[in-house]
Amino acid sequence: MNGVSEKKKSATFASLLLWIYSCFTVFVLGYLVYNSLRQKGDLLSNTFGLPKSLGFGTYLKMFTEQKFHHYFLNSAFILVATLVLIVLLASMVAYALGRYKFKFKNAVQMYFLLGLMFPASLGVLPLFLLMKDLSLLNSYASVILVMSAGISMPVLLLTDFFAKMPGEIYESAILDGASEWKTFYRIMFPLASPVVFSICIVMSVQIWNQFFMPLIFLQDDQHKTVPLIVMKYTSNLMLSMDKALTASVIATVPILILFMIFSEKILDGVASGGVKG
């Protein structure tokens, strides 16, 4: 009984901490949105007081005068292209690892496991020189190629999913005359769609918020992404506080709403591809 009581106390304490953290996060986001609706003069002269007025004037200026939609589309293009490459590469690698036995298979899986511990930013210098030699600097391709190489987590999730698939499904496809490739993209890949969907949402947050790689590889202003433009405004906060707040809201809220809407599907997908004891 004491063991059960201790577990309940631990669960209650953990839930309390999560509620406190969640409330604090919601408060910060709400305060950010609230201040983004205020005028710059009111923000600087009456920071903690009641606002004189609230409006979307700064938002309109961001899209009309600052051309913020251009940087938003840059980020969206990089996001979609990177996700497509990640899904294609990770699903094919994971299918081979999950369905076949071959020499050095454990070593290959260990390689992807180590990839979770060593981010691509550790090798930024050789990556920069490589992209320079390939004449890909200041192009979206450099960022897309580098970020799409981070497939360790998708590979591990999908590998476990394909490994647990009943062998009868694969065998029936072969008996029906389906080729190896057709079996993969017509049967196995659609069955893995919950895991793929979860991977896309989780990776979307990482790619959208990526700051370091675009900073290194995208030096022209026309190619910059949303996080880089947010840094541009925050670097001179007193002169562009209203723009910095508005840009932060536009950069944060859409991807956060997307994550919240599909949170249940994300959990279901991770559970489908997760390792079960």
TrEMBL record:
PROSITE patterns: ABC_TM1 (PS50928), PROKAR_LIPOPROTEIN (PS51257)
Protein name as catalogued: Carbohydrate ABC transporter permease
Residue spans crossing the bilayer: 12-34, 71-98, 110-131, 143-163, 184-208, 244-262
Keywords: Cell membrane, Membrane, Transmembrane, Transmembrane helix, Transport
Residues covered by the ABC transmembrane type-1 domain: 72-262
Domain of life according to the entry: Bacteria
Membrane-topology descriptor: Multi-pass membrane protein
Coiled-coil regions listed: none
Subcellular location field: Cell membrane
GO terms, biological process: transmembrane transport
Annotated family: Belongs to the binding-protein-dependent transport system permease family.
Organism: Cohnella pontilimi
Any one cellular-component term (Gene Ontology): plasma membrane
Keyword hit for GTP-binding: no
Record carries keyword Cytoplasm: no
